Amino acid sequence: MQKSPTIGIVGGGIAGLVSAYYLSQKVARSKIPHLRILLFERSSRFGGWIQTEQLEKKYDSHIFEHGPRTLRLHTGFSSLDNHSTINTLKLLEQLNIFNEQFCPIEKTSASFKNRLIYYNKKLINLNDLSLIFGGKPLRYPPIFYILYEYFSEKGRFTVQDETIKSFIYRRFGHIFAEDIVEYLLDPLIKGIYAGSVTDLSARSVFKKLFNLEQRYGSITGGLLKTRKDKQNENSIHFLFDDLNLNDYSTLLNKYSIYYLHDGLEILIKILIKYLQSLSNIELKFNQTIKKIQFFHNEKNSIEILTQSNEKYHIDHLISAIPSYELANYFDNKQYEILQKQLNQIPFVNMIVINLLYEKKDIFPLEAFGYLIPSREQSHLLGVLFDSCIRQKSDKNKHGSQLTVMMGGAWFDQLRLGQCTDEQLMHIVMNELKKQMDLNEKPLFYSISRLNKAIPNYIVGHDDNLDDIYALIRRYNLPLTLVGNSYRGIGVNDVIFDARLEIEYLNLETMKRKHLTIDCPNSPLKWCETKEIAQACDVIEQCETFVWTTRMETNRVNLSIYYETLCPDSRQFITTQVWNTYQSILDIVNITFIPYGNARELYRPETKLYQFYCQHGAEECYENLIHTCVLNFYPKSEQHMPFIYCMESIEGNVETVAIQCAQKSTIDFDQITACTHSRLGNQLQHAYAIQTENLQPSHQYVPWITLNGEHTDDIQKQAEKDLIGLICNSYKGSDPPVQCKRNL
Ligand SMILES: C=Cc1c2[nH]c(c1C)Cc1[nH]c(c(CCC(=O)O)c1C)Cc1[nH]c(c(C)c1CCC(=O)O)Cc1[nH]c(c(C)c1C=C)C2
Predict the structure, then answer these.
(1) Transmembrane segments in this chain: where (predicted)?
(2) Residue 371: CB within 6 Å of ligand 1?
(3) What is the CATH number of the domain that holds 189?
(4) At residue 152, what are phi and psi to the nearest 5 degrees?
(5) Rounded CA gap, 734 and 152, in Å?
(6) 10: containing domain
(7) For residue range 284-331, what is the model confidence (pLDDT) as tens digits?
(8) What is the ipTM of this complex?
(9) Please, which of 323, 461, 535, 581 could form a disulfide with 457 given CB 3.0 to 4.6 Å?
């Protein structure tokens, strides 16, 4: 008998909708067609901050975007690869809106390249190199900055996190940092986070640059060393084989950003239409949630109580609301710390003013827009030249359009919350007159006050996230976090992150919770599975007399000699070994030896071994991470999910390791300490010896031994059907049910 497992999603913004979308696809692939998905949105519309207003005909049907309007085709500052970018393109294709809606902007076009700043009461173009050499806004030639950074003291492995300002001052020194911070990074950070360089985290916002410094000792040195690796980036994502970068390389090389012809909200509308066509999804508008209660019972279920006192029982909750809103639902004292950690992510208020002018050419030059450094003391953060950006779609329309952004981290200081619309417009008109020499009155305008619109990843954000995940694990909460509060604020990041999170959801356990199993008549079957044993109330007896006996006497010993970045090793671990782990772990000991074709050299001066790996320094580092994890987490249940995760995801090793540690129960601080210690070095050396002592010597990786033996036959069978191989080698009289199916 089977009741329907149910997943609840709270929040009907882009994160909630794409979570429902990817979940529906996962359900269709899996064998749980009865799984129900409930999506709760408190307002009467879906889409969150993504909102497109279509103006009347008398305004030439211009569109006003009240939130995001362009999407990235390049990696951006925090993303480490192009997968999130490709993923959104795939989504547009899957929803059949790519061909009619996708409007890319060429990298060479003025409306992308020309990014201006308001400097010394003038608009200057950062793309105009002569300006930089002419001493604006950088006082010295750029090569001075680069050389200083390259030779400045290495901060390797010393800094946990710091503000963007302190990072730049540490790397470039006082003489050079001032220009970079005041006139480049201050406006840039305003133009993405509406935040301040004195608050935001270098580690979270400039992930790539921060990691390069931590790894290679300097940003420039790191960039030089990793230039070669970039060529290998055109790969397929390990979890999602539809994300083949090669399919899109021409497009990514040519274009920089894109917008959707009818505005970004078309993506929301099409998603809703698709979700409404599915029978197992219910989209619930106007549903304010009063309470979410987690029950720590056998089923670990959740109760959602709405304002209208309706109750919903669900098995898993996907939170697609901002972190501070989720925090409110944890009103039980028990979750006080989790509530506090969620509340530690600050959000800033924005005022977005769209303006339509009658005249066609109101812009000083064709550009993306301009940003205003804090030193210039303006009430505005920046101005977007929408007509330049949407040139292709709006070429036959009259007039011109721009958007003014206000608020962010300076919202309270400038008392913008107290301004009436008239006062805001007065400020805007004055500033545009001063900055753009724009004296015209707009034909039409629209003011949006976006409360707590953009999360600011302040210093310690990544550590805070670690704590949040550790608490969710400690309380054993069936909870998934998606949305821009956590791991990226761009639309691409939010969509891709939701897809990853859904991929990691284990629907099987949800299904099992809903199976009502009757105890079979024959006692021979009582210990076949945990669920049957539970139904027969003989768990303890099975553990003592059947399952442990299997464990002690007849277990098959499987050893995998591998290297972490080798594609064949990764393929083997993420398919054959992972399936084996998931189904027949109680008859096999799985041992990992992460070394493979590496070589070692003893350095008497340091009394340490130096390792050289087939796939370079990155691989040596990942081998070492695996080595340390295997040492501190010796049980398969402890290290296998981490190893599987790391071997599944491509990208910067440290970032992936942190991400995977968060998802499993690994304390990454402990592992980092080990990788930098003599202990880590000794453990890696032990694996080198173990690999070098193999009889016969290994000739390739992964190299498999079964009960200490390697033959071509064992290798071939292992690569083809590892479960079958282990089941056949198992000598116990009570093979698990999965083997019976296999034999
Ligand atoms: C003036 C304020 C803002 C402007 N846009 C935003 C704010 C707060 C919001 C915003 N802009 C970007 C993102 C991230 C998108 C993503 O990663 O997918 C967000 C949330 C993109 C962006 N905008 C600028 C830059 C350099 C970037 C990074 C990626 C890219 O190159 O597209 C610069 C910029 N933003 C604004 C202006 C006027 C401006 C430059 C002239 C407005």
Answers:
(1) 6-23
(2) yes
(3) 1.10.3110.10
(4) -75, 160
(5) 65
(6) 1-50+263-346+456-517
(7) 999 999 999 998 776 778 999 999 999 999 999 999 999 999 999 987
(8) 0.95
(9) 461
